[in-house]
Each structure stands twice: as C-alpha cells, then as structure tokens.
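Lab meeting, action items carried over

1. Structure of the two-component assembly. Owner: GW. Status: complete.
Input record:
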Amino acid sequence: MTENFEVQFIDRDERTARFLVRGVSPAFANGLRRAIIADVPTLSIDSVRIIENSSVMFDEQISLRLGLVPLTTPPNEFEEGDIVTLALDVEGPETAYSGDLRSDHELVEPADTNIPIIELKYPETADSPQRLELEADAVMGRGRDHAKNQGGVAVGYRHLQTVVVEDDADEYSDSEPEILRGVIEERAAEHAVATDGTGEPENGALVATETFDNDLSKRYPDKEVSVRDVDDAFVFHVESDGSMSVDELVTNAADSLAERATELEQAVQL
Amino acid sequence: MSYKCSRCKRDVELDEYGGVRCPYCGHRVLLKERSRNIKEIDVQ
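Predicted assembly:
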C-alpha cells in the first residue's frame, strides 16, 4: 500500500493544516486520525503541590484547569513518563494566566500564555490579598489515557470529491445554490469559472470549496452537476493544541502506527 | 486545634475542657484556618 502513497498540502500552518493523502484505505485513514488524537505523547500537568491557595476555587478545580493547559513538547527530548516541573505564584488583585507558569526546562512552556486560570481579588474586608502559589509536575502522557494529553484536536477527514458536469441546467428552472463543503478535484475545468485566488480552472487542480462560497452553482454556472467521491483519497484537517507543530504531530502519529504494526507482526510470527 | 476568632481575629487554641469560646473576647464563633502544609493533588 505504501508504495503509491502521496501527500499534497492544501493549507499549511503551524497550528492547523489541511492535506490530501492518496492511495490509502478508509481503515488506514481512520487509523491515522485516531493515532493523531490518542497516540502522540505530549506533556501536561499531572500533579500539583499547592503551597498557598486563598482564592475562591478549590485546589482540585485549579489543578484540573492547570492540567488542561497545553505545554510545548520539544521533539525527541522526552520519553513517556518524563517529568518537568513548573511553578506559579500570583497575588491579587490580578488574574493568574497560563503565561505566569514558569518551567525548569527552557523548551517547555505554556503553548498559549493567555488562558485564564483564576481571577484573584483583594477583598475590602480582607486583610491580605488572595494568593495562589503552587508547584506542578508535567508528565509525558498519551491522549488515550487522558484528554489533556491530546496533541491533535479537531482532527477529521473526508473523501476527496470531484464534480461531474452532467448537462446544461434547465433554461427556465430557478437556480438554487448547491452547497458542498470540503475540497474538490477539478475534472471539468472547461465548464468552471475562475474563483477568487485560484487562478484559471485546470484539470487535476485541488480547489477548496470556500473559494466559491461552498456553492457549486457559482463554480459551474448554468450546469447540472453531480458529486462523486474519489476512491482512496482523503482530505485531512488537523489542528494542533500548540504542544507541537502539525507536521510533527502527524509524523509522530504515523511513526506510532508503524511501530505498532511492526510489534503486531513480530508478535504473530511463529 | 488552632482556630481564629471571627470577632477579634486572634488565634485561639482550643482544648477539650474550655468549650467553644474565644478566651480573649468571649465570642463563640471560631473559624478554622487552612493548614500551612503543602497539599499534593493528582490532576484527573
């Protein structure tokens, strides 16, 4: 299967990407999706030592919020079970943000610095401000054990689709929008009109449906069209929580799939 | 056991004979202060 494996990017960013994979079965596509969600180890806070907490929230609630803060996970630096220590010390009246976390490893830090953890006050009736001081241990873990370790969020795929122009549209019929979302492979360029940012229609080109407002009647005006799935071609949409780039996330997921396949192969050999 | 009087805000030590009462101002409402120990919590 792998010999004619083809990957083509549609959008590519640090945090999100959309790419087309050709020559894979639906089972493999789903395996890759699941691996991205559940099998790429990332760092996340796993135990918290509360030194002082005079805020209005329970220690356990604050710990849970801290656990869900995505931490950058440098590649090939940590193994599963490795620990990084972080510390937080904030005094009211101020909001404690994820950016206030200080780590003891230069490459590990909160992926987003603007996640509120708790709002601390200095109540008029109190003689001291509310204060939160704690130490936390971040542990490398997998998404299948706890959702806080999911590196990939909003991961999905759908078939690559193509549009077949059947006929001219009925002259007197009202033109209704034909909504399609995803990516299409152009195979009827002679009937298509250029849509914003994509240049002249060309057979074989990949066109995101957003470029024509997800409306096929704008791309193929006055035509009767039908939509078909392209066999064994899937468009993945992957979003990273910031713990690593989408590239690393997907390659790590593919590696983990390969690893487990080899493991299974060795296990069933007589 | 260490408490804090809710009226005079002073630290109060209670023993089993004295009853619940602040020895300084006689107030009967005492508040339990949070312990200074470090508390370790597993995130789940």
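2. GW to write a short summary for the group page. Key points so far: Chain A has a mean pLDDT of 89. Residues 246-268 of chain A form the longest helix (23 residues).
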